[in-house]
Amino acid sequence: MSAADTSGAERGVAEALPNSLRAGPDPRGRFGIFGGRFVAETLMPLVLELDAAYAAAKADPAFRTELDYYLKDYVGRPSPLWFARRLTEELGGARIYMKREELNHTGSHKLNNVMGQILLARRMGRSRIVAETGAGQHGVATATVCALFGLKCTIYMGATDVERQKPNVFRMRLLGAEVVPVTSGAGTLKDAMNEAMRDWVTNVRDTYFLVGTVAGPHPYPQMVRDFQSVIGEETRTQMQEAEGRLPDVIVAAIGGGSNAMGIFHPFLDDPSVRLIGVEAAGRGLDSGETAASILRGRPGVLHGNRTYLLQNEDGQIDEAHSISAGLDYPGIGPEHSWLADIGRVEYVGATDDQALDAFQLCTRTEGIIPALESAHALAHAAVIAPTLSPETLLVVNISGRGDKDIFTVAAHLGVTL
Amino acid sequence: MSRIARRFAALKEQGRGALIPYLQACDPDYDTSLALLRAMPGAGADLIEIGVPFSDPSADGPTIQLAARRGLKAGSSMVRVLEMVARFREDDADTPIILMGYLNPIEAYGHARFCADAARAGVDGLIVVDMPPEEADLLDGPAVEAGLDIIRLVAPTTDDVRLPVVCGHASGFIYYVSITGVTGTRTASSDELAAALPRLRAATDLPVAIGFGIRSPEQAAAAVRAADAAVVASALIATLEDSLDEQGRATPDTLPRVLAQLSALAEAVRSVRKA
């Protein structure tokens, strides 16, 4: 163990320093040129109010205590860091660990953020919650806490996604949420986001918009990152306990980028830790049917922030494509765009087919059925693990469980359920 | 003095308010939309807003969403929109043209190049829905340099602390979004408007236009009674949409019906005498 690693471990979750990569965003909500608050004037006062309310909550120890209570006894944290022995043997190379976010209540990392934001919404006196969802993981998490606290809940979900994620739609309705299928555009996450913003602008007085990823107008990217950073903080401590040092490589899938940001952020100031974000390449990065916003997009403005977007030369936003509804979005959180530009995080792609293979590999070797989103991270881990030495510690973030995806996977494997 | 300021000054002299109709560029096709644009001043338009089609109009209701989709399908782009304005300017040097839309197509075009080309085409002002004053730094400079007014939106949620900030960045006129919501849905009551206007007047000397939810001649008249101008968008687009054939193409009815509605709105607006 090197001296640098020791000091990094001792620093742990300490407050970010001004010259740290963890210091962003600036007061305007910018990470470099990315981020900001590009919303209609009607929403601007609400976004500013949210910023102030979040800052006050963050400074209040009682808020932290309350959140910790729910994270432990309701969400089920900490999630384990699992040494994937058979997968490691099968791939040959790096020692592969899995951060088991799929074991959280509701089956994904989404509840970490939702728990934080619902406590904030309650502090702000809001009685109605709206949210967008792609795969339905964020929608289920949101509907869950609304049931827990007795709040009205409306979830916007693209009509295409309603079709391919039926189990989650049924779950949300059981939980008492109204699920509104959105038919505009291609009926996926981008369209659900538009419709949730339209609801918010119409119902500003009583409604809280519970954004599910590290995107949207400031302070959402920062706030969601803060709530998700528990993933990386635990990983840091757990790897210390398991191996006595920091991990060497961390791999996470990216749609909007919340699970990746959550596990990356506590390691941004540790240059020895290689961070890799895996975008959904869809049918191939150059197939025209992809969701790889950083690898194939350009900076632009959508949904409240400036970030990398899939768009045509006229600035019209392209439809994304991915087998995974949760990654099927033509943008990405602004902090990722900045981390890509400064080169701190590597961004790569994994195709639909690679994800399907990794889905089966993980299931077969570890007895863990990963979400198709997480399978993209596993796919890239499977590519690089054999090229790394057996001393290399590689962590894959298993952001969600795959039960919701078995119909999609079965269809691709030619099986009728 | 800009074309917008000149027009408002002239109307003030005549003792009446302004009617600002809206059309979506290339809806349902380039030629129809250019013909409509050219005919609007004759039917009573005092200023005209041209919606720039965007794939993700998150502040618009269903009517304008569909219009944007038709416009894009018909091949709209920023280049085409500016070309349309230039064609309009060939025989109308006086009616102010305001482009209304979202920021990304402007970013994709390039802020400075866009402002220069827009001014050259004959555009007078810009309304960028998702660009609050805090995020206007990249566009403000080039717009001023090109002589384009940046028209600011004020909403019912804009509080007294924020109002001077918003008005401080504005030029041309202030666009008062009279309801909380998307375009073309609810209509503000006369009481709501009467309550909102004094607050605005105290914060700015610019003319005030009221938009979002104005559908009927009566509502347009009520808006100019309270403020200086009425913006009518979704109601005109709904008429246009209703006139299309099953494939979404223009019919011989399209222009006459939209223009008849515009004339009725203009008549109501002009019937209001202002001191």
Automatic annotation (TrEMBL), chain B:
Keywords for this protein: Amino-acid biosynthesis, Aromatic amino acid biosynthesis, Lyase, Tryptophan biosynthesis
Reaction catalysis annotation: (1S,2R)-1-C-(indol-3-yl)glycerol 3-phosphate + L-serine = D-glyceraldehyde 3-phosphate + L-tryptophan + H2O
MF (Gene Ontology): tryptophan synthase activity
Pfam families: Trp_syntA (PF00290)
Organism encoding this protein: Gluconacetobacter aggeris
UniProt-listed InterPro entries: Aldolase_TIM, RibuloseP-bd_barrel, Trp_synthase_suA
Stated role: The alpha subunit is responsible for the aldol cleavage of indoleglycerol phosphate to indole and glyceraldehyde 3-phosphate.
Metabolic or biological pathway, per its Swiss-Prot or TrEMBL entry: Amino-acid biosynthesis; L-tryptophan biosynthesis; L-tryptophan from chorismate: step 5/5
Any one annotated GO CC term: cytosol
EC number: 4.2.1.20
SUPFAM superfamilies according to UniProt: Ribulose-phoshate binding barrel (SSF51366)
Record-given protein name: Tryptophan synthase alpha chain
Gene behind the chain: trpA
Stated family: Belongs to the TrpA family.
Enzyme class: lyase
Self-association state and partner proteins as the record states: Tetramer of two alpha and two beta chains.
Active site: E49, D60
